[in-house]
Amino acid sequence: AATLGTDWALDWVARAAKTVSDHRIDLIELDRAIGDGDHGENMDRGFTAVTAKLATLRPDTVGDVLKTVATTLMSTVGGAAGPLYGTAFLRGAKAVDGELDAAGVASMLEAGLEGIRARGKAEAGEKTMVDAWGPAAEAARRAAEDGQGPAEALRAAADAAAAGSDATIPMVARKGRASYLGERSAGHRDPGAESSSLLLAAAAEAAES
Ligand code: ADP
Ligand code: MG
Ligand code: MG
């Protein structure tokens, strides 16, 4: 499609809920290695609540869907990730205006990244979800500037987020619980970078379907 609308946003959320549920144990194990082992549980609880909430509402716009995701994640996920993802989706919601073309996808992801950075103060290379969102937003912007469509922009973003998640493995954590481990955090993938990669893969799949 030339633009992505409310149906895409709802399909994104449904696919996000499924992938978070399918990877619940993986995310728990990643967080057990360098955190407190709750990231998979937190994310699954959050997206289960989002699914329930969206079943009772009939959001009209992409922005309304993202705003519902934001407020529900903020009130149900807890920990570090709840406010971070909540802020990302809220800023993303504010950045979208109607349906999304590739530039709209890039603007949504850039706004999400800025929200995460504003909330968590992490820079690139500190082994957090910023290391997935940063490359993702950049890749989406490049795709838009190359004249590609929104599905291609999301695919580029998802692939960049997956590579960004891989790149967190050798990093030493400087933010969040994993930073308490210092050098011992190296050699493990960051759970939030991985869940971010899963969410963006879900967005790309919804756009491609
Ligand atoms: P908690 O650490 O409170 O148990 P979660 O386990 O749900 O919360 O989420 C941990 C993830 O949150 C980390 O893997 C990391 O990606 C992300 N995170 C933690 N602190 C920050 C921060 N300051 N900035 C960006 N992301 C962060
Ligand atoms: Mg945790
Ligand atoms: Mg916790």
TrEMBL record:
One of the GO BP terms on file: glycerol catabolic process
InterPro entries attached to this UniProt entry: DhaK_L_YcgS, DhaL_dom, DhaL_dom_sf, Dihydroxyacetone_Kinase
Any single Gene Ontology cellular-component annotation: cytosol
Gene name of the encoded protein: dhaL
Family annotation (Pfam families): Dak2
Provenance organism: Georgenia ruanii
Gene3D superfamilies hit by this protein: 1.25.40.340
SMART domains, per database record: Dak2 (SM01120)
Keyword Amino-acid biosynthesis: no
Protein name (record): Dihydroxyacetone kinase subunit L
Domain DhaL: from-to ranges: 7-205
Molecular-function GO term, any one: glycerone kinase activity
Keyword Nucleus annotated: no
Keyword terms, alphabetized: Kinase, Transferase
